[in-house]
Design goal:
The chain has 125 residues and is mostly helical. Helices cover 57% and strands 6% of the residues. It folds into two domains: 64 residues, Winged helix-like DNA-binding domain superfamily/Winged helix DNA-binding domain (Arc Repressor Mutant, subunit A, Orthogonal Bundle), CATH 1.10.10; 39 residues, no CATH class. Strand 2 and strand 3 form a beta hairpin. The radius of gyration is 17 Å and the shape is elongated.
Amino acid sequence: MSLKIAVDPGGSVAPYEQLREQIAGQARSGRLPVGFRLPTVRGLAEELGLAANTVAKAYKALEADGVIETRGRNGTFVAAGDAAEREAAGAAQAYAERAHRLGLPEERALALAAEVLRARYGSRG
């Protein structure tokens, strides 16, 4: 089992975000199982031809999302638990806070979210 990452430095998506998306996707799909040890920041940066700060930024975002966990000098690992649900819950929290700041009534905020989800999943409501 190995980490397979392809980063397009000239792409429209920032390299750290490409890295974050790919690792999160592989962890969610089970391709990277819980407990899988990720390369060091420096090692992955060298392997991908990226700056160490770019990889560190991606790892920090993944850790904040609960996808990975750093165990001090032991390394960085794919975290246990349902990372997809934790990530979705965080996105829902951010949406709720933003909708509230914008002054949207709860019913309208829920309706907007439901419309987007129906469009994405192709279901009829």
